């Protein structure tokens, strides 16, 4: 008795896998694009919050993004509390 697969069986599996890939790949790509969009929105909201916090603490807009990540003591918070 032959224990291998026939050419027809192998071709049927390849066709089924091709059909599945054709259906699933666009869906996966769409979900990846949505995830990138959501991440970008979250990053912008985080940056907005950081700028708002900086303005509340310093009374001015930051001159650069580096000011948003520098420790507040380096920007004269001691003057605010005197």
Could you please describe the fold and organization of this structure?
With 82 residues, the protein is mainly α. It has a domain at 30-82. It is 73% helix and 0% strand. It has three helices and no strands. The protein has helices at residues 7-58, 66-69, 77-80. The longest helix has 52 residues, at 7-58. The chain is rod-shaped.
Quaternary assembly: single chain
The tally of strands reads 0
Low-pLDDT parts are: none
Shape: rod-shaped
Q: What is the alpha-carbon Rg in Å? A: 28 Å
Helical fraction: over 70%
Which structural category do the helix and sheet elements fall into?
A: mainly alpha
Counted by DSSP, the helix tally is 3
Largest sheet composition: none
Q: Please report the distance between the alpha carbons of the first and last residues.
A: 93 Å
Order of helices and strands: HHH
Mean pLDDT: 86
Strand fraction equals under 5%
